[in-house]
Every structure is written in structure tokens, then in C-alpha cells.
Write a structure and sequence with these properties.
The chain is an alpha/beta fold. It contains 14 helices and 17 strands. It folds into two domains: 128 residues, Rossmann fold; 197 residues, Vaccinia Virus protein VP39 (Rossmann fold), CATH 3.40.50. Helices cover 35% and strands 23% of the residues. Strand 8, helix 10 and strand 9 form a beta-alpha-beta unit.
Length: 375
């Protein structure tokens, strides 16, 4: 029986050695459209990837369910689909398995397990990127500078192969770039009328850097953070910053809310990611209020930062009217779902074709930040 496996690095390197080699598109190198597909893994990555998995299903991929080594899940349902044991998976013929992990060790270990029973498998991100290589090429060609293109290419390759146990990429040190969220000249300009919005304000670290970078000059800062622990720290920092900069109370406004595609109430579960407190919008956790920026913002904002562990695309959809109208500078994370690296740039380009685009890698995790601005 002939089968392919995702740990054949030479194939992956060849694909991305020159982004123009991605021309051609289609799914001719994968068997996803004519076989049963199973997702391996029911952990946090699979939870964040639910919309990505739904997109595969919309594109005709026949996803049957999940498989995991954890016997506590066998026979149960995960996000509506059955979870089976590796033994049961081994009895099924003519299937493809997508390993839902960003850790190289996990991909290799599970891959070896699947190879031993002659099952065709891929790292989940690799499968998505091969399916959408036309879109990847479109995004690559939108980028304005060589560092952006090198960063984009490097980080896609890293995601396809997986990083270390904390999710850090192995080969991205030479593209690591300082000035998180303020690393592009257009974002560095000082404007007394600027309104800065921080979605995923966390503990206020980005707000503090923003103030120092702008010498405290702006009209207003608005921060959103739904996590209770992080919001408490954000409140403490806000009080200190107002005193240190001699600002009026309404200069920095913060809200313990989620931001998304529409207003309403959502479930938010706190978690720890890379040693930092954060959380995910999903089916479990505390109920928090969610707003859409198009409903919330009645005055023009000029700079928008989004880093929210997976809800970036929803936030942009809930802000599309104001983005089209006001064309703010935008910096947005493309880290938490495989599809983000092409869906987010193409969505913004469709909204505002005049946007210039750049990407930077700022931290030791599988993260790219997309910058969009008008010259």
C-alpha cells in the first residue's frame, strides 16, 4: 500500500523554497476530497481550529470524527463528532488523518504511530496550506518588503513542520523583530487626535508601550479584555499610567468585554498559554458580554490592534463597516488558526484595496503580526 507522511521535510522545503512554486492551486497532492478524513487530537489546538475544520467541511472534505490516544474520550463526542480509539482507526480503510498539533514532537510521534498501520497522514496546517496555496501566493504578493516575504515564507514552513513543546518555531530567530505592534513606520506617527483600540488588551503591556512610543500624545485609548484575572491587572496598570502621565480619567477607557462579529453574550474560558493567562471564546466558561466594533464605536478610530487567541477574524468582520469607512491602521495576530494567514490579509484587502501590508514575527511562538495601513 502506498502512503505519504508529513515528516518528509524535503517535500515541504521544495514547496516553499520559492513561493511562486505554489502556483497551480487545487488539491491534486492530497486525497482529502475522495476519502474519509479523521482529525487526530482533541486538545486546545483542535478547539481553536473548530472554524477551520468547519471550512474544510464546507469545501467538501468528508470529516468523520476524531481520534486520540486518551481513552477517556473514546466513544464520546467532541464538538459534535465521534471520538474513536487508535485501534478502531487502524481497522478503517481508505482514510486520511490530519494531526491537529503545532508541536513537531507530537506530529512525529503520532505520524510514526499512523505510519506503522499504513495510514496516510498530514500535519493539519500542512494540509490546509496545500489546499489553499493559491491564496497563500496571493497574500505573499501583497506584501510590501523583503523582510515581510521572508517572514511569511519562514513561518508557514514552521507551522507545517511544527515547533517545540511550547509551540516555538525552530528556525525563525533570524526574522525575530522588536517593537511589537509598533514595528512599522506608519504606526509610529504621533497624532493628538488618534484613537487607539486594543482588542485583547491583556494586562495593559501593549497600551503602556504605545504611550511611551507616542510620548503620551493621543486623543484616547480604548482597551477590551474579557479575562477576569488579566482585566484586574489591566485596571491596576491603567490607574498607574493615568497618574504617571498626568492624564484625565477618560483618556484610557477599559472594558471587561469580548469583541466579535456581533453583540451578545458568549462563553469565555480562562486558560494558560505559554505561561500567560488568557482564554478562549467557546462552549464553556463564564458568560461575558461581547460587542462588535461597528456597533460600539461612533467616532473615528485610527489605530486598531487585535491579538485575541483565535477570534481575530470575527473581530474584523464585526468592524468591517468602520474599517471601510475610516481605513484605520491595523495590526492583527495571525497565529491561532491555520486559515488566518491567508483569510485575514485577503479579507482586509477586499475591504480596503489601498491597504499596504507587512508581516513581522515578534515572539518565540508561531505568531505573525499582519500590519495594514494607508500611505
Amino acid at each position: 500500500m502506498c502512503f505519504r507522511c508529513a515528516n518528509k521535510e524535503e517535500n515541504t522545503v521544495e514547496i516553499l523554497k520559492d513561493m511562486k512554486s505554489l502556483r497551480g492551486g487545487g488539491v491534486d497532492t492530497l486525497s482529502l476530497l475522495n476519502k474519509e478524513v479523521w482529525i487526530w487530537g482533541v486538545g486546545e489546538t483542535a478547539n481553536r481550529y473548530q472554524k477551520s475544520i468547519a471550512n474544510l467541511q464546507k469545501n467538501g472534505v468528508n470529516i468523520q470524527g476524531y481520534c486520540d490516544n486518551n481513552n477517556e474520550w473514546w466513544g464520546k463526542r467532541y464538538n459534535g463528532l465521534l471520538v474513536i480509539s487508535p485501534e478502531e482507526l487502524g481497522k478503517r480503510n481508505d482514510i486520511v488523518v490530519l494531526i491537529c498539533s503545532l508541536q513537531k514532537r507530537v506530529i512525529e510521534e503520532v505520524g510514526a504511530q499512523l505510519t506503522s498501520v499504513q495510514k496516510e497522514w498530514y500535519a493539519y496546517d500542512k494540509a490546509v496550506y496545500m489546499l489553499h496555496r493559491r491564496e497563500l501566493l496571493q497574500c505573499y504578493e501583497l506584501l510590501t518588503d523583503d523582510l515581510s516575504k521572508k517572514t511569511y515564507q519562514t513561518m508557514i514552513l514552521e507551522r507545517m513542520q511544527g515547533g517545540d513543546k511550547t509551540g516555538r518555531p525552530f528556525h525563525a530567530d533570524d526574522i525575530l523583530y522588536g517593537n511589537y505592534c509598533l514595528g512599522i513606520a506608519a504606526f509610529d506617527k504621533i497624532d493628538k487626535d488618534e484613537i487607539y483600540i486594543d482588542c485583547g488588551a491583556y494586562v495593559g503591556d501593549t497600551i503602556e508601550r504605545y504611550l511611551f512610543k507616542k510620548f503620551g500624545v493621543c486623543k484616547r485609548i480604548i482597551g477590551f479584555e474579557p479575562d477576569e484575572i488579566s482585566f484586574f491587572a489591566l485596571s491596576e496598570r491603567r490607574s498607574r499610567l493615568l497618574k504617571e502621565w498626568g492624564m484625565k480619567d477618560d483618556k484610557i477607557q477599559i472594558y471587561q468585554m469580548a469583541v466579535g462579529a456581533e453583540k451578545g453574550n458568549v462563553k469565555f474560558s480562562s486558560s494558560e498559554l505559554d505561561g500567560r493567562t488568557g482564554g478562549l471564546i467557546g462552549n464553556e466558561g463564564k458568560t461575558v458580554q461581547m460587542i462588535a466594533l461597528d456597533d460600539f464605536m461612533t467616532e473615528q478610530y485610527s489605530q486598531l490592534k487585535i491579538d485575541t487567541i483565535g477570534s481575530e477574524m470575527d473581530i474584523l468582520k464585526g468592524a468591517q463597516k468602520s474599517i471601510k469607512k475610516w481605513k484605520p491602521n491595523i495590526v492583527v495576530a495571525m497565529a491561532y488558526k491555520a486559515d488566518d494567514v491567508f483569510e485575514i490579509p485577503l479579507f482586509l484587502y477586499e475591504l480596503v484595496p489601498e491597504y499596504k501590508f507587512a508581516v513581522r514575527h515578534h515572539r518565540n511562538c508561531m505568531e505573525m503580526m499582519l500590519y495594514a495601513w494607508i500611505e
